[in-house]
């Protein structure tokens, strides 16, 4: 047990004040009033309360019941989670050296606490004693007790003390390494931003994009020049538009070289250490690889089931990609390289489908996409409404806060959107909950979407690409999952489902981006006010399977890399990170020279900092369910509100309070078929 360790100069009263500030009884924390010291102090108090609760429950002489064992663990765990998530929100969105240093101190201790709970044999004995026909547990309570048992067994509860001590040491080291990985990636991504001297080099970009690049350079202290910040994935959106091949190559080269240049930000050594430690952890827990350990905790079950999905898709996607490459090279009059593919694919799209994706941006103004698109779709399908709360502030002035209400007007929670890219903000698109809905705590959800959309220059309209529109609908699908959760306990709330199921509702929500009653409502030209012509919308739908050989291959390459790294056996030495990755892709037939992996190993943040280690396959795994569900919604288009209510009641509302595949079968009436995925991607 540790005592409360407030930051220097504070006392216990200040500690509890900080706790109330960072994790208020309900709603959004007042981020403007919270400093780094407050986060650390609140963490210390919440951690101490958590440790005391665990000790009290574990040593309770009374017969174990759900109320005296699970309920106090849920309460204490949720409080600590809220403190940590509030802090990680800020450190991920507006990183400073002070916050990153604090992150490196907090996350290992948070992980250590959670794993200590899972490995406490006294707690396990009490949880094992809960159950039986005479306990009167509800289905949600029974499932939650089963999840505790499963997680604790998987974490190695009951193993010898020497083994559990080693597991704890591994977890602490992994947390520190992951934090360092993220820190180096953030720094190298900023350092490798591409600087352009002359506007003529930016030929192909819109005036707004050029102005934004000029403004970004000026902010960096380089007036008169232009700065192109790197995107999180390997490919950059500007590669589709830039006519100057040399600049496209510079951008691709910079993107691919992140954290693999042998400098202080190189993450190759960190990757090798993380992989070795995860493999050792798996061995200690009785698994031949970390992939085996991870799969056993998900719906997939085994690495073989994952390979059974990935490899057949890889064969089909690679074959289609080769045909696409040949066609593009013929169009280009030369062999298309990785920096050429997006540009010539857009040319081909224009020829085949008469679609100019750059021109489409003028129909996708941010405000219209948000209020007349996302929110309109949520009303049509689920009966929800969203009202902006100008009186509430997020962690940055970019944030916008909206109150969500149900069809009967009752409040559901808050939705926070942080849309624009910043140098101190981690790349990519993500969703997380600041507060998890839970009847036990009388808590309504506070859920956040963070994207990395390039900021327009001052005075210019904020426009989205079609790809960014779909991404926003995807992330909003996660937010809806959290907001419409209707469970009793935070551990079963909203997004707390198995990792290879969590992407499923978000992928379903992508369908509304081009649904007739939705796209016709938001796709309005920013200057003329004219709606996007129906024939253009039809061409967008027809072109949905265009370039899918490339897109599926780059995604599968990333999933294959993740899978390969986490099938490394305990004790196996990896001497060369790049060579290991090359061989893994070659074995899968995904080593096309013009299609780099969506993420190279050294900047694969999902896997070496995020929550997708050995689980990046889950996007495709979930897409099987999503594609099948999209076909179901299409069949029930005549009663969209009724169909939405069924999906909400059987899938979204139950969160993680029931077996996810049983929930899917209850919704769909059968298991999903991979055929729907192949049809969706045009690979059938």
Task: Summarize the model shown.
The protein is mainly alpha-helical and 684 residues long. It has helices at residues 12-22, 36-58, 66-93, 97-118, 121-129, 139-155, 161-191, 207-219, 245-256, 268-284, 290-296, 303-332, 341-353, 357-360, 366-382, 466-483, 499-509, 516-522, 534-542, 548-565, 577-588, 605-608, 618-635, 640-652, 660-668, 674-680; strands at 194-196, 226-228, 385-388, 400-405, 411-420, 430-435, 445-453.
Q: Descriptors for this entry?
A:
Neurolysin, domain 3, globular, 684 residues, 7 strands, mainly alpha, 26 helices, disordered N terminus, five-stranded mixed beta sheet, 56% helix, two-stranded antiparallel ribbon
Structural class: mainly alpha
**pLDDT averaged over residues:** 94
Largest sheet: 5 strands, mixed
- CATH fold title of the domain at 362-546: Neurolysin, domain 3
Q: Separation of termini?
A: 58 Å
Biggest sheet strand line-up: 3-4-5-7-6
Q: Strand share of the residues?
A: 5-15%
In the predicted model, the low-confidence regions spanning at least 5 consecutive residues are 1-13
What is the count of helical runs? 26
């Amino acid at each position: 047990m540790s005592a409360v360790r407030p930051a220097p100069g504070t006392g216990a009263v200040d500690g509890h004040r900080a706790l109330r500030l960072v994790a208020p009884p309900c709603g959004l924390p007042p981020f403007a009033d919270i400093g780094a010291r407050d986060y650390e102090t609140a963490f210390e108090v919440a951690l101490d309360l958590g440790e005391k609760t665990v000790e009290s429950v574990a040593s309770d002489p009374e017969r174990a019941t759900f109320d005296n064992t699970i309920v106090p663990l849920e309460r204490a765990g949720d409080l600590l989670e809220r403190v940590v998530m509030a802090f990680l929100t800020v450190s991920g969105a507006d990183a400073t050296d002070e916050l990153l240093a604090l992150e490196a101190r907090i996350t290992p201790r948070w992980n250590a606490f959670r794993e200590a709970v899972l490995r406490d044999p006294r707690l396990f004995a009490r949880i094992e004693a809960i159950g039986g026909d005479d306990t009167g547990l509800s289905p949600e309570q029974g499932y939650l007790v089963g999840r505790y048992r499963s997680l604790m067994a998987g974490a190695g509860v009951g193993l010898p003390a020497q083994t559990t001590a080693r597991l704890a040491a591994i977890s602490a080291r992994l947390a520190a390494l992951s934090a360092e990985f993220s820190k180096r990636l953030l720094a190298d991504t900023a350092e490798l931003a591409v600087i352009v001297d002359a506007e003529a080099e930016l030929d192909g970009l819109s005036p707004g994009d050029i102005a934004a690049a000029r403004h970004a350079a000026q902010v960096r202290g380089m007036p008169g020049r232009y700065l192109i910040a790197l995107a999180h994935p390997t490919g950059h959106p500007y590669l589709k538009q830039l006519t100057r091949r040399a600049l496209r190559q510079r951008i691709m080269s910079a993107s691919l070289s992140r954290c693999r240049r042998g400098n202080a930000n190189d993450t190759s050594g960190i990757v090798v250490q993380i992989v070795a430690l995860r493999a050792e952890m798996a061995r200690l827990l009785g698994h031949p690889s970390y992939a085996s350990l991870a799969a056993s905790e998900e719906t997939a079950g085994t690495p073989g089931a994952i390979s059974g999905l990935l490899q057949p898709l890889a064969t089909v996607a690679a074959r289609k990609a080769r045909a696409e490459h040949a066609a593009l090279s013929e169009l280009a009059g030369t062999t298309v390289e990785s920096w050429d593919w997006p540009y010539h694919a857009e040319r081909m799209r224009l020829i085949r489908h008469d679609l100019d994706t750059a021109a489409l941006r003028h129909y996708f103004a941010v405000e219209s996409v948000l209020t007349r698109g996302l929110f309109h779709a949520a009303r049509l399908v689920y009966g929800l409404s969203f009202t902006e709360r100008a009186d509430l502030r997020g962690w940055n002035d970019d944030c916008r806060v909206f109150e969500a209400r149900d069809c009967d007007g009752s409040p559901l929670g808050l939705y926070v959107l942080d849309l624009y890219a910043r140098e101190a903000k981690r790349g990519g698109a993500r969703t997380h909950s600041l507060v998890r809905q839970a009847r036990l705590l009388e808590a309504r959800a506070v859920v956040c979407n963070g994207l990395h959309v390039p900021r327009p220059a001052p005075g210019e309209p904020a426009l989205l690409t079609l790809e960014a529109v779909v991404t926003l609908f995807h992330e909003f699908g996660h937010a809806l999952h959290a907001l419409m959760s209707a469970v009793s306990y935070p551990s079963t709330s909203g997004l707390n489902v198995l990792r290879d199921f969590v992407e499923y509702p978000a992928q379903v929500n992508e369908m509304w981006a081009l649904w007739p009653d939705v796209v016709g409502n938001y796709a309005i030209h920013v200057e003329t006010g004219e709606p996007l012509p129906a024939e253009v919308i039809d061409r967008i739908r027809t072109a949905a399977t265009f370039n899918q050989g490339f897109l599926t291959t780059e995604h599968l390459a990333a999933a294959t890399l993740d899978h390969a790294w986490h099938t490394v056996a305990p004790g196996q030495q990896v001497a060369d990170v790049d060579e290991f990755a090359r061989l893994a892709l070659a074995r899968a037939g995904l080593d096309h020279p013009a299609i780099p992996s969506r993420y190279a190993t050294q900047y694969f943040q999902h896997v070496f900092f995020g929550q997708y280690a050995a689980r990046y396959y889950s996007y495709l795994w979930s897409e099987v369910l999503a594609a099948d569900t999209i076909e179901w919604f299409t069949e029930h288009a005549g009663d969209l509100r009724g169909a939405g209510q069924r999906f909400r009641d059987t899938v979204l509302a139950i969160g993680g309070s029931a077996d996810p595949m049983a929930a899917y079968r209850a919704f769909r009436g059968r298991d999903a078929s991979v055929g729907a995925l192949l049809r969706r991607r045009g690979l059938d």
